Amino acid sequence: MQNWKVTLSYDGTEFHGWQVQPEHATVQGTLAEAIQHVTGERVLPQGSGRTDAGVHALGQVASFALAAPIPAANLMRALNRSLPPSVRVLAAHKAAPEFHARHDARAKTYEYRIYRGEICPPWLARYVYALNWPLDFDAMQQAAQAVCGEHDFSSFAASDPDLKTRGEGEPVCHVRTIFQSSWSREGDLLVYRVRGSGFLHHMVRNLAGTFLDVGRGHIAAEALPQVMAARSRSAAGPTAPARGLFLASVEYDQEGQP
Amino acid sequence: MQNWKVTLSYDGTEFHGWQVQPEHATVQGTLAEAIQHVTGERVLPQGSGRTDAGVHALGQVASFALAAPIPAANLMRALNRSLPPSVRVLAAHKAAPEFHARHDARAKTYEYRIYRGEICPPWLARYVYALNWPLDFDAMQQAAQAVCGEHDFSSFAASDPDLKTRGEGEPVCHVRTIFQSSWSREGDLLVYRVRGSGFLHHMVRNLAGTFLDVGRGHIAAEALPQVMAARSRSAAGPTAPARGLFLASVEYDQEGQP
Fold this sequence. Notes:
The structure is a homodimer.
Chain A: E1 2-10, H1 27-39, E2 46-47, E3 56-66, H2 72-82, E4 87-95, E5 105-115, E6 129-130, H3 137-146, E7 149-152, E8 165-166, E9 170-171, E10 175-186, E11 189-196, H4 203-215, H5 224-229, E12 245-252
Parallel strand pairs in A: 3-12, 5-6
Antiparallel strand pairs in A: 1-3, 1-4, 2-3, 5-11, 5-12, 7-10, 8-9, 10-11
Helix pairs in contact in A: 1-2, 3-4
């Protein structure tokens, strides 16, 4: 068996998220079908993490093992011929036998894109949150920087009842480390970029929604430490729409590399 | 009654073209519904011309008359609130009573976009024809320039049996004047831009498909005069896919302007 690491880009609009589901098109399920079409082998590729319905990826990473011997360039080309145009394999590399895209991920970077122009072009509508009201950029930047470091992010975790405990009622740890967190102006876009050790469900969309509330003056930038300390979803702002969110990249230690 | 001229941008992917059809979503029908939602008036906006299913617009123009007095800025904002994100009103102006978006159009410009990179990003897939094989740019440019001027474009007209005659068997005129016709390299894109007095059904896609055949060496650039002289669809190349085509702009004499 050969273990593989593939890097994927996808438009999440028409998928019910990453994770395979009966009856629904998902990115994981679509990739599994393409792998089966190309190699005849039925495998379930493991992603670095799930992305929700409507969330996109510039560089999701997945791993899977195949019995078929196949050169990396051929695997990539054959998968791209089999996949729909909304999913592209950007790279395929042979990986060490123990490599696992989720377990071995050391850091991830997400981008959240806000369109600031008056009229959002139809070709961007699926990929941005169009928001034309005034925003205090400096306050949003200050708030974004306040979440850097190791914190309990319960205030930014989706309040999914089924995610509050794991197994026998053991509480899920909500502590994560954020390495970088900042906004930048890029043409007609405002982009929030966050790099961290890992992210809770909805965490980036809840951070973005909270920073937008700061930008509108509904939450003070100075209040971010209290919002985190409250460890309560209701202390933070709303969940920003999925369509503005991109999983930009996933980082691994050397052993994950070919 | 006040006559209106609106400029529209749209993503044609999920529409069955411009022209209203029972049972199918069309741009004209969607705009009519938005106008009715905003004003209560049932009108059929007249476009500068039809666009086919999957064809996009950067600047389609439509005209319609309304009884309701409404400031132009309010009409534009209200239509954009009512329309889906795939259709945007870029401008709305009061027009002279006799203005008609189709009858008064003096020139139109179309763009056809080819993606030349190795892997087409998912967010461009709906808006380009991804074509990775070698193309002779200079030959394509020479062929594009050969169609400038007044010509019978029968070789590039869709072979729709119902369009060959008009009314009582009168043959449709296939003579059109092309003012500008050229290819340009724009980053990872090759863009064909053509400005003319008017265009036959499928004409731009048939021109693009023929120039791509020239780029691949299947048709000689020097053969374009013979291709036109043949006045036969089979003398030209294939119809390029709808998704690469954009109606870029429509020009009017002064009376069409506010």
